[in-house]
Amino acid sequence: MARRFATVDEAFDQVVDFLEHFDDLEDPRQHAKVLYPLDEVLLLCLLGVLASCESWVEISKYGEKKLAFLRRFRPFTQGTPSHDQLGDIFAVLDVEQFQHCFIAWTASLTGLGADVIAIDGKTLRRSYQKGGAKAPIHMLSAWSTRQNLVLGQAVVADKSNEIIAIPKLLDLLAIEGATVTIDAMGCQRKIAQKIIDKSADYILALKGNQGTLRDDVEVFFTEQAARNFAETTVSRHETVEKSHGRMETRSVTATDDIAWLKTRHGWPGLRSIVMVETVREIIGHPEARIERETRFYIASHRTANAQLQGQAVRSHWGIENGLHWVMDMVFRDDECRIRTANAPANFTTIKHIASNLLRRVPGNDSMRVKRRVAAWDEDFLQSVICN
Questions:
Q1: What does the alpha-carbon distance between residue 242 and residue 240 come to, in Å, rounded to a whole number?
Q2: CA distances, 66 to each of 19, 60, 248, 314, 370 (Å)
Q3: Tens digit of pLDDT for each residue in 126-152?
Q4: Helix (H, G, I), strand (E, B) or coil at 92
Q5: Rounded to an integer, what distance in angstroms lies between the CA atom of residue 265 and that of residue 204?
Q6: Is residue 99 part of a domain?
Q7: Do 158 and 21 share a structural domain?
């Protein structure tokens, strides 16, 4: 578990430091009519979510019951808002400003170094409004696979708009020296150029959305494999994993001998290509089933390295288990009924802050258990927010 702080004063100072990262978030309410300062509202909601609250009603009730605890950190002179007031406040907060503050706070936690940053989107299914007045929002997230932290997010109208949102999200992130991985939706020249301009590398999945690029890569690997790669220089790496009656063999082949491809397509920063072949087998079953899959990628790494590039490709899917699954199963994203205006996106940012804080708590307890303990133990909750 996280360490405990010796004094309330020390914890107070830590919370003040944390809240300062959100000073640039403008409060759109009329100043003369504000009963509940915005920093108190943000702190209430964050502590409530850490303590397993899932709605404005639960957070409001949490504030009523934990007012003495909340006053360890802020005055809360007027008490805490009702659930309707919380919803109204979060509905009008500027989404982009809140996300910028979140990104700045996350960047302060630790430097990136040679990280792999996975970018992927997720739809908040219950964020729609009935009658078609508002479609469900789509959140695009950047995920540090090394640190297991959400680095930033952006709201897009739907998945097709990820192409526009990805460069904007990249502009906000410090990615120098990192490798950015994106699925085929993000395999776009402008996105590749943006990553290169920010002194980072990319590995982009290939499908049929870039003319003949994927076909050319597939034909090259197929022809060279038929000759046992005797006519080109390649890097190769293979892993075998057995788990729960399944065996998965992953064979990665990479090459930077692609002058012909760069000439033909002129892709920004393109220096190597990667093929990942996966074979999945069910072990010990009378009707053994074998599944085969081959995927292709373009990369900007100057030198092909099948082991490192294969690890980057594999780690990209950590965003599914490390973030999307956690948001669904631990923070109940798909069951959340918050729908009004900016509230769904802003509440998701609160949950991302909570997720990052909980991940920094030492120990082997699951995220769900940590939230339960935070609900039971005020000292533990205090240590989480001050960690």
A1: 7
A2: 19, 10, 49, 43, 18
A3: 554 555 555 567 889 999 988 889 999
A4: helix
A5: 15
A6: no
A7: no
What mean pLDDT comes out for the span 272-277? Answer: 97
Interatomic CA distance for residues 342 and 91, integer angstroms: 4
pLDDT of residue 2: 46
Number of domains in the chain: 2
The predicted pLDDT at position 133 comes to 52
User: CA torsion angle for 366, 367, 369, 372 (degrees, to 10)?
Assistant: 180
The terminus-to-terminus CA distance of the chain in angstroms comes to 11
Instruction: Tokens for 36, please give them.
Output: 């509940």
Q: Domain containing 84: what range?
A: 8-94+342-385
Tell me, yes or no, whether 237 and 276 share the same domain: yes
Tokens representing residue 52 in the block: 């397993």
> Which residue bears the tokens 């990319």?
202
Which of 55, 65, 68, 59 lies closest to 41 in space, CA to CA?
59
> Does 267 share its domain with 228?
yes
pTM for the structure as a whole: 0.86
Per the listing, tokens 């069951």 go with: 335
> Which two structure tokens, joined as six digits, stand for 86?
């919380």
pLDDT tens digit string along 347-386?
999 999 999 999 999 989 999 999 999 999 999 999 998 8
- Asked if residue 327 belongs to a domain, the reply is no
Q: Are residues 239 and 138 in the same domain?
A: yes
Q: Does the pLDDT at position 41 exceed 50?
A: yes
Do 44 and 75 have their domain in common? yes
In angstroms, rounded to a whole number, what is the distance separating the alpha carbons of residues 181 and 36? 42
What does the alpha-carbon distance between residue 285 and residue 281 come to, in Å, rounded to a whole number? 10
